[in-house]
Design brief:
2 domains; 5-stranded mixed β-sheet; 227 residues; 2,3-Dihydroxybiphenyl 1,2-Dioxygenase, domain 1; alpha+beta
Length: 227
Amino acid sequence: MTGTEQRSATTAEVPAPAIDMKLEIVVIPVSDVDRAKAFYARLGWRLDADFASDDGWRVIQFTPPGSPASIIFGANVTAATPGSARGLYLVVSDIDAARSDLIRHGAKVSEVFHGAGDIHAGADEPFLSGSRRITGADPERGSYRSFASFRDPDGNGWLIQEITTRLPGRVEGETAFTSPVDLASALRRAAAAHGEHEKRSGGQHDANWPDWYAEYIVREQAGRPLP
């Protein structure tokens, strides 16, 4: 093998690192910009921008609490039919608390619902688990399985999804929380699990509970087996 061939083989064995591509903006189509702005402001979402020009162009950006991604709507920013956006998901750690908060801020939110297991076909509006919506949270309160929905004034459809434990591989080496609420929810789950851990240990106080909490929270976010 020549020196050139050796270098080519070595280069081929080392894959190029993936380039970060962060989903940051979702554009939603609205018919009345000011009405939409008032609606999302009432929800308590952060207003990041409201720019306009003399030729009828306008763009407004809002960010949901704790979200790394934002929404944009306005005039002359999308050719989509107003109200045609569907399946806009808001991930929360406590769906009951999130639903109550949205209702308190003026949104008309559905009852909490879950899917029908292995049955995905039905007459309901489709969501991640198919087109059957069973009233109530998932009986086992499994992560990813409980939902609620609401619409903005144009009919753009939002879904709330409760996620408490991530599937394996969804978090790579980092544990991060985007809000104090998410961190508090994780601490409550760790506290409940640690209580069971102390029961299994004969009811003795665990002086190393901070280490246990930390391990539990990191494993939960990474989708690894819990202690």
